[in-house]
Amino acid sequence: MNDMIYSFKYYFTDGTSKLSGCKSKNPLELYNDFDGLIDWEEFDSLHERQLTLHEILELACKAYNGFLKDFYRIEIVNISTNEVLDYIDNS
Question: What is the pTM of this model?
Answer without folding.
Answer: 0.88
